[in-house]
Design goal:
The chain has 315 residues and is α/β, with parallel strands linked by helices. It is 37% helix and 14% strand. The protein has a domain of 209 residues: NAD(P)-binding Rossmann-like Domain (Rossmann fold), CATH 3.40.50. It holds the Pfam family Epimerase.
Length: 315
């Protein structure tokens, strides 16, 4: 097993440093005493205090080589979700391995990639999901397919330790938060977005717990191992699920619809009712601290506060 010397201050590169996950990861890294190089596309991006702003495209080989020089770890969080498939492929599937190869060539110890549990087949007949479970097929949506392909591309970059962190729905306050802000806005404004199967599994994790896991991996606080159940495999590519406790779609939708003043529309249809298993992450010492009640209360408070600030939001 290996981990950085306690006398060594880690130098960590973080892409998407102004995003929901990237910004929280940067903040956790700064708290831990790491030097953080925050990669953003434009100068003046809103990034946490105490980090170095590096402006550029991580898919550009020259910029990638520059930003990783002297670094001990790299965290990649960027995926242009909602863009067309060609853009998602170019940025994620093609661009992320450019940074990974630059990191390998510079002698970086670890690369931690924020993937997604959406890469797993979660059709109604699928049961519980662990890191060995089947992935989505070619009929998957653009997001799941390109995230799957990015994982595969990183698996092909030998020469450094790679960790594929796979969270499900990421809860947490933020203007760009899909589940705390964007999806609730759609539920408020569009009747079709209120339709759901109530007993379908709602797999989730809070962004603060996710950021803690990613930061601990990037700095080596979670040591490598020759057994993936005890730590990332040294020099290998190891997937790990980052999911919190069980929940259903009813839990989420009832919270949101009450807060925005509409009624959910329940469907009776086949749905996945398994769980995203987090035994591997727990074996690495990760224990989620934010419970479901707290996460849902944060959503409720955020939505009611937003409506208070903007009366038109409740229409």
């Amino acid at each position: 097993m290996s981990e950085p010397s306690p006398t060594t201050s880690p130098v960590i590169v973080v892409t998407g440093a102004n995003g929901l996950v990237g910004s929280r990861v940067c903040a956790r890294l700064v708290e831990s005493g790491a030097t953080v190089r925050a990669v953003v596309r434009r100068p003046g991006a809103e990034i946490p205090a105490g980090v170095e702003e590096w402006v550029g495209e991580f898919g550009d080989p020259a910029f990638a080589a520059s930003v990783v020089e002297g670094a001990t770890g790299v965290v990649t969080t960027v995926h242009p979700m909602g863009s067309d498939r060609g853009t998602q492929h170019r940025v994620a599937v093609e661009g992320t391995p450019v940074l990974a190869r630059a990191a390998r060539d510079a002698g970086v110890e670890r690369l931690v990639h924020v993937s997604t549990a959406a890469v797993y087949d979660r059709s109604p007949s699928a049961g519980d999901v662990d890191e060995s479970s089947a992935l989505v097929g070619e009929n998957a949506d653009d997001y799941a397919a390109t995230k799957r392909d990015t994982d595969a591309a990183l698996a092909d970059v030998d020469g450094l330790t790679r960790v594929l962190v796979r969270p499900p729905a990421i809860l947490g306050a933020g203007e760009t938060s899909v589940w705390n802000a964007l999806r609730p806005a759609a539920i408020r404004d569009e009747e079709s977005a209120r339709r759901a199967v109530p007993e379908q599994t709602f797999s989730w994790v809070h962004v603060d717990d996710l950021a803690g896991l990613v930061a601990d991996l990037a700095t080596g606080r979670i040591a490598t191992s020759d057994d993936p159940e005890h730590g990332p495999v040294e020099g290998g590519c190891t997937a790990v699920n980052a999911a919190a406790g069980p929940a259903t779609v009813r839990d989420y939708y009832e919270t949101v619809t009450r807060a925005v003043g509409v009624e959910p529309l329940w469907d009776d249809a086949p749905a996945w009712t398994g769980q995203i298993l987090n035994d591997r992450a727990r074996g690495w010492g990760w224990v989620p601290a934010v419970g479901l009640a707290t996460a849902l209360a944060e959503i409720d408070a955020g939505l009611r506060g937003a409506q208070g600030e903007d009366p038109a939001a409740g229409r």
